[in-house]
Amino acid sequence: MLRFIARRTLLAVPSLLGLLIITFVMIRLVPADPAAALAGDNATPEQVAQIRAQYGLDQPLPVQFLKYLSDVARFDFGDSVYSSRPVAIDIVQRLPATLELTFAALFLATALGIPLGVVAALNHNRWPDFVLRIVSIGGVALATFWIAIMFQLLFAMKLDWLPLRGRSSVGISFAGGPTGFLMLDALLKGRLDVFWDAFRHLVLPALTLSLGGIATITRFTRAGVLDTMQKDFVTYERAVGYPHRRLVWVYVLRNSVVASVTQIGLLFGSLIAGAVVVESIFDWPGLGSYTVNAILTADFKVMLAVTLLVGVIYAAVNILTDIVHGLIDPRLRDQA
Amino acid sequence: MLILKKFAQDKSAVIGFAIVVAVVFIAVFGPWLAPYPQDATMSHLTRRLRPPSWAFPFGTDNLGRDILSRVILGARGALKVSLLVVGASMAIGVPLGLAAGYSRGWLSEAIMRVTDVFLALPQLILALALAQLMGPSLESAMIALVATYWPFFTRIVYAETRRLRASLFVDALEGLGASPTRIVFLHILPNAASPIIVRATIGLGFTILVAATLGFLGMGATPPDPDWGLAISQSRTFLPGAWWYATFPGLAILVTVLGFNLLGDGLRDIMDPRLRRSR
């Protein structure tokens, strides 16, 4: 198993190198003059020249690339134009909020998607199956930014059940805790009021973010369960008289979820990307809203750092997905 | 004929097909269908933010423009963008996939490693960053979308080509002395057509969604274009009062994308017998 993990991790090295090359090409070659882009619209030619020298943009490309690599290796992404603080510090501060939102959405998607998929498969071609099929195809057709606004309109503005935006209410004083996850920190310090407030703020963004995921996981679980139900071992266990519930929810499910686990892994990546939209609509103080701000204000250093970070998270999640596969299905360990 | 019969039996695919036909019809004849076609550009400040009524079934926006007309007129832009983006992505991705799948050694490796890196990046963030670097405009958004969508075609075509390359008829063609170009384009490509068509259909819906998101974030269409994503973005200042302003353009996106997804899903079931069992 350890060898499998090590080999799988090594396979990610070329992708990460590719990621570095693509981001380098993007930032250095796509704008006609990166120095002018960095300097902003109102810069004088002297300022542009100064920036060109400062960032080594007058050096040959291979030299620039090496400098870029060493900067990245030291997590030195420079200062954000928007917050005028080091980008790396901004990211570390905002990451927990995004992870909290993403994990909540991932939990919702898995906790709802897998049972719904099983129910659809057990009712194959009857009405629950049809309803779930339309809902799950509709779920991926939803524009996240639109459904976010619709939720705000209905649950926050009209019904006033949940807060409209942000991560906590204005009047609440809470210094934060060791983890950066607001709900967890509130529990650790025994502040149930803060916990409840944070939970209420989390509901709408997490639900919005999870919709596409619920749809995807439902579909893959349904297909997987349908496939497994036709296997010989199921017929056998049925004939022997295993309790139906145990058969479906333990044996069939374990044999069906490999595809769903892949989807959950892929989903984590798409949730991080989806968080860009959801966070900026709900004013969630995470990486997503930070990224949108950076893109709208042409804050190139932040854009670069965030793209790299998300690429690394993607790669890490892919490795993790493969390892989980290996745990569920021992046969896969030998193939990789 | 068998395919047509199978297709007609699949209710959700037929619904999807009907929606797509309707959207194409609206996109082509929009200026004649819209009750107030001049509202693409003209504003009427005397009738701002009117709720839905017989005269304005979807209400009016903050500049007094008929939202129904602008939703109808927006179909053309949405469809044009997605057709161009998916078409260009195919034009890049399919030949690369064929080359990578048919050749062996470094060329194949090089193409697939680059493809994997692109696939390992979140499309939306990459597209947003590229659009900003090229200067925000609809053209930049489209180029950015192509730059992030072609790898999906390369991956699929690569897998299909690899599979077909091992089959007997390719051996036979090689034995007869057919040139690689001939084998790849005249024999392998037609056999790989189904997954490409399915991916393109779903891709059309998906691209409408991402393009609308770019428009919403201010990286796509520019005012006064009757763009669905842009309209939703502009509507936010007028909530919760003018609920209709945000609601109807969003429904237009939902129905259109749903149509393409249902159609693509149905096509996949018909064209790929391996998946049919799980229905």
UniProtKB/TrEMBL annotation, chain A:
InterPro entries recorded for this chain?
BPD_transp_1_N (IPR045621), MetI-like (IPR000515), MetI-like_sf (IPR035906)
Q: Where are the transmembrane segments?
A: 101-122, 134-155, 202-221, 264-282, 302-328
Q: What is its main location?
A: membrane
| GO MF, one annotated term | dipeptide transmembrane transporter activity
Gene Ontology cellular component list: plasma membrane
Q: Where is this protein localized, as stated in its record?
A: Cell membrane
Alphabetized, the UniProt keywords read: Cell membrane, Membrane, Transmembrane, Transmembrane helix, Transport
Domain ABC transmembrane type-1: where?
Answer: 95-321
Keyword Chaperone set for record = no
Q: How does this protein sit in the membrane?
A: Multi-pass membrane protein
Q: Name one Pfam family in it.
A: BPD_transp_1_N
Family per UniProt? Belongs to the binding-protein-dependent transport system permease family.
What protein name is recorded for this chain?
Peptide/nickel transport system permease protein
Organism equals Enterovirga rhinocerotis
From TrEMBL, chain B:
What is an example of a Pfam family matching this protein?
A: BPD_transp_1
Sorted alphabetically, which keywords does the UniProt record give?
A: Cell membrane, Membrane, Peptide transport, Protein transport, Transmembrane, Transmembrane helix, Transport
Q: What is its main location?
A: membrane
Membrane topology annotation: Multi-pass membrane protein
Its Gene Ontology cellular component terms are: plasma membrane
- Compartments, record wording: Cell membrane
Instruction: Name all ABC transmembrane type-1 domain ranges.
Output: 75-264
Is Iron-sulfur set as a keyword in this record? no
Entry superkingdom? Bacteria
Q: Which family does it belong to?
A: Belongs to the binding-protein-dependent transport system permease family.
This chain belongs to which protein, by name? Peptide/nickel transport system permease protein
